[in-house]
Amino acid sequence: MSKDYSKYFHKPSLKEAVDRKKEIIINKDGLDVPSDMVNVGKDKKYFIRTYGCQGNEADSEVIAGILEFLGYKKSNEVEDADVVLLNTCAVRENAEEKVFGEIGALKKLKVVKPDLVFGICGCMAQQEHVVEKILKSYPQVDLVFGTHNINRLPLLLKDALLNKERVVEVFSNKSVIYENLPVARSNNLKAWVNIMYGCDKFCTYCIVPYTRGKERSRLMEDILKEVRDLKDKGFKEVTLLGQNVNAYGNDLNKGYDFASLLKEVSKVGIERIRFVTSHPWNFTDEMVDVISKCDNIMPYIHLPIQSGDDEVLRRMGRRYKYEEYKKLYNSLRDKVKGCSISTDIIVGFPNETEEQFNNTLRAVKELEYDSAYTFIYSPREGTPASKMEDNVSEEEKKRRFNLLVDAVSESAKKRNDGYVGRVLKVLVEGYSKKNKNILSGYSEENKLVNFKGKEEMIGKIVEVKITTSKTWTLEGEAIDG
Ligand code: SAH
Ligand code: SF4
Ligand code: F3S
After folding, report:
1. pLDDT tens column, 264-282
2. Domain with 310 in it: what CATH number?
3. What distance separates the 2 farthest-apart alpha carbons in the chain?
């Protein structure tokens, strides 16, 4: 007998994903839970593995919040769980390969636990070819949902759980912002706060605008309410999230922008405010001014450059030239006292010449970043760059990548050396992973600091004198340790 699950069968479409015309709807209804799903998770457990960016981590906390609302408890072991979800990332091929490997490895769980619901969500689920591949070759996957319908998890889970059907529901073009969904935060000191979703930049190599849809900003009042609430609950730090936070408010026509948002969030009085990611193109002088003047806005900026060569930047669709980037970079270094700056760089963009790569290398040496995330270009199906010819061999890309990593490490170490002897304020998160006698936390500049101190410092912001610098971390001693 065939079951009717057509209502929960909706596949992604690349064509729909590029549409930017739809009106943005703010849905404040919160979660819709069918009556037979209330408490369905009693005595049961869930497990979520998150791949990808902070936006995905924030989504996983909402997914966890929904599952806990249904009565499920968190499990740290995948073997103990009754619902297993992989919240995936599509930004590079190796991220996808890891997920397919994991889907294969988890097949055995279904054998010992046939009632287990195994689901795939996140950015990979937004891609047509991925969903086709799952449907064809991975029968162990019961549930596929995307980034636009997390709010419908109770309904989708119901079909997978109670009707034992394969459920696929992915929308490509839903310009909705969901407010008031439950959130189970994974850290009690630091919280993610989405300020906007989606991306309209369409850099030619990037899949994000297709997987996350149109740029849409939350209302300032909703963001401020969330930050106030976090402060009242004792959180010390918020990170404002968006693929391009500088574009905040552009879609709203409310007369406010990212600079005004930062000012208001600062006034809430939470101890630390961070934000990612800033696209260099929309960075205004006013933003620089606000960041430099508000003490609780941390002096750390992630400013992706991607390439140091104008022609490559043009083909990437980045909308700035190296000299413009450098001007902004220097003005941040000048005006935001003691700030640290990190970046993202792609090597091996199609047909990147030796000379173009050398321009990137030169930029890294010239700018002296505190750190950089470096990637080898990975063609993403459906993006303009994936159709460009590429005459650079994998071997050559790896060679360039290694040269770049060396340059970044050198610059990071040099920057860190400058902190020795200085006192930094560190938000203490707990004991260091490697050494149980050492405390660990991040400084205002986003430096990971390992130091000798007392247990009661955990959860507090303390002053640490830096004694040693390593490439990616600093070591020191608490001032009143
Ligand atoms: N919105 C952010 C970036 C999100 S993706 C921004 O614009 O800065 C994070 C990083 O992944 C990008 O900055 C880029 O360096 C890298 N990336 C994105 N697509 C990629 C691809 N196709 N191949 C390799 N790296 C990629
Ligand atoms: Fe991707 Fe560019 Fe958007 Fe960043 S700004 S998410 S790199 S398209
Ligand atoms: Fe990856 Fe999606 Fe984030 S593609 S980087 S998880 S927006």
Report:
1. 999 999 999 999 999 999 8
2. 3.30.750.200
3. 74
**Which tokens is 46 given?**
């869930």
Same-domain check for residues 72 and 30:
yes
Question: What is the C-alpha to C-alpha distance for residues 196 and 446, in angstroms, rounded to an integer?
Answer: 22
Question: Which residue, judged by its Cα, is nearest atom 2 of ligand 1?
Answer: 243
Threshold 0.85, pTM exceeds = yes
In the reported structure, the alpha carbon of residue 58 is separated from the centroid of ligand 2 by a whole-number distance in angstroms of 18
Kindly give the number of the ligand 1 atom that is closest to the alpha carbon of 345. Answer: 15
What CATH number should be reported for the domain holding residue 217?
Answer: 3.30.750.210
Q: Do 134 and 218 belong together in one domain?
A: no
Distance 4 CA to ligand 2 centre (A): 39
pLDDT at 164: 75
Tens of pLDDT along 325-379? 999 999 999 999 999 999 999 999 999 999 999 999 999 999 999 999 999 999 9
Residue 168 lies in a domain: yes
Question: Residue 219 gets which letter from DSSP?
Answer: P
DSSP-derived secondary structure for 429-463: EEE-SS-TTSEEEEETT--EEEEE--GGGTTSEEE
Parent domain of 440: 423-478
Write down the pLDDT at residue 173. Answer: 83
Q: Are residues 154 and 196 in the same domain?
A: no
Q: Is the pLDDT of residue 5 over 60?
A: no
